[in-house]
Specification:
By secondary structure, this protein is mostly helical. The chain has 19 helices and four strands. It has two domains: 344 residues, no CATH class; 92 residues, Translation Initiation Factor IF3 (2-Layer Sandwich), CATH 3.30.110. It is elongated.
Length: 464
């Protein structure tokens, strides 16, 4: 029996590795095909001043910023340059590592079908999209999953070294992306439901201490950066769709996935209430992970309303690993009943179908390509010409990352024969119309319009 169990574990590990390897290949294709997007370019721009404090000042301007991923990404940029691979290689590596960690957690908590749970986790549109972007989210997700593993160890065998490692990984995740801290609040709050037992009470105090220490370690950076947040930091205009749709690639896919997750989680809660003391650890991990889901979504919603910020798809990421584990636990428990054996297969199939549909819609959208647009500007600057970066402040930086020579050709006055108006994809129609109207009022007339990469270049000249 022992040998059979070992063989099954090895078989699962091999199959999981094959699935993750195939996923990594798909991510590499996505990295090569998808141009750098504006949030990625803004992060790349910080590394222009890596040798001075200007890098930290740039990071502090971004809403909800954290500095760790900028420094992790820097060596890749120095070796590979401002290319999609250079910007995204660290994200790819963390996404692969996070996938192995999730698979380990799915087996650790006793899911009967960890491979199916892994497939759903890999195919979640918001996760797949962030895995091919040079942003901090996959790094933060990796540390969150690592912290979750040590939290479960802390619940099983409370000790100071385990609590210390939990605090370390939680802090690294928070310094990668601050919202990655939110599940830990739910973990410790829902662990309070089990403090009637001495072991769980001891684990709760250790977990609470680690959570408070993490918050205290992040507080100095937060207080330093908060006054420097730039209210004009570029954000997606409404034409990109709402965050709920972005999270699943398509509105119908989002509703389908949300419904399935809701049913699975509801089933898990109902069944957990019926588990006996022999399954205490299963009840604890399920309830604590449920707490992580609740705290992530609730605190994010409150913070966005309080700060007047828009909800973004990446804010869902921190609740999703726990949501997959809890929902599959509920579906599998129902399937254990004699008349409901197909439940897990049907549940997983529908969820995978919703994720695949969402991935198709998400990755088939027209891609931003500011780099391609930047390459088209220089050939238009011959003779007495200069460039105007429509929408002030950050527009200039976005183009100069790929074409530093444009800095010398920016319009300092409007007495030139030719004006080139450069608009990146986040520039609104109103901003473009206002810029063109301004130059028409100065006796310039449009001679050519070049759409490119979601933005556009407008060439305007005045009579000789």
């Amino acid at each position: 029996m022992f040998l059979g169990s070992v063989r099954e574990s090895v078989r699962l590990f091999v199959l999981g590795t094959i699935v993750i390897a195939a996923y990594a290949v798909l991510l590499c294709i996505g990295i090569a095909m998808i141009p750098l997007r504006i949030p990625e370019i803004l992060q790349l721009a910080a590394n222009r001043g890596f040798e001075s404090l200007s890098m930290l000042r740039w990071i502090a301007q971004a809403p909800n910023s954290a500095p760790l991923n900028y420094f992790v990404q820097m060596p890749f940029l120095l070796v590979l340059g401002y290319t999609p691979l250079g910007a995204r290689l660290d994200s790819l590596l963390f996404a692969i590592a996070a996938s192995f960690l999730f698979f380990h957690l799915a087996r650790r908590v006793g899911l009967a079908h960890p491979l199916l749970a892994l497939l759903v986790f890999l195919l979640l549109p918001v996760h797949a999209l962030l895995a091919v972007q040079g942003l901090p989210f996959e790094q933060a997700l990796f540390f969150l999953l690592l912290a979750t593993e040590w939290f479960l160890q802390l619940v099983e065998k409370p000790s100071i070294p385990t609590a210390g490692l939990y605090a370390v990984f939680l802090t690294l995740g928070t310094y990668s992306a601050p919202y990655a801290f939110l599940p830990a609040i739910g973990y410790v709050l829902f662990l309070l439901l089990f403090v009637n037992r001495a072991g769980e009470r001891r684990a709760m105090w250790f977990a609470l201490s680690a959570t408070v220490i993490t918050a205290a370690l992040f507080l100095p950076y937060y207080l330093w950066a908060l006054p420097q947040v730039n209210p004009f930091w570029p954000s997606r205009p409404e034409l990109y769709g709402n965050a709920f749709e972005q999270s699943a690639g398509n509105e119908w896919a989002a509703y389908a996935a949300m419904t399935l997750f809701g049913l699975g989680i509801f089933a898990a809660i109902w069944i957990a209430l019926r588990w006996g003391t022999a399954e205490l650890f299963r009840r604890i991990w399920l309830v604590c992970l449920l707490g992580g889901i609740v705290s992530s979504l609730a605190i994010t919603a409150v913070a966005d309303v309080w700060l007047g910020a828009s909800f973004t798809a990446d804010q869902l990421l921190w609740a999703l690993p726990a949501a997959v584990l809890v929902a599959f636990a509920g579906a599998e428990r129902l399937a254990a009943r004699r008349r409901m054996r197909p439940v897990t297969a049907v549940f997983a199939s529908l969820l995978i179908a919703a994720c695949v549909a969402g991935d198709y819609f998400e990755f088939s959208r027209p891609a931003e390509d500011t780099a391609a647009e930047a390459a088209l500007i220089a050939p238009e600057l011959g003779g007495d010409a200069c460039v105007v970066f429509v929408s002030e402040r950050f527009s200039k930086v976005l183009f100069e990352v790929f074409a530093p020579s444009l800095q010398r050709r920016e319009c300092l006055n409007f007495s030139h024969q030719r004006i080139v108006l450069a608009s990146h994809p986040y520039v609104t129609r109103e901003q473009r119309d206002n810029a063109e109207s301004f130059f028409r009022g100065l006796n310039f007339s449009e001679t050519r319009r070049i759409p490119s990469g979601g933005g556009q270049i407008v060439i305007m000249e005045q009579p000789h």
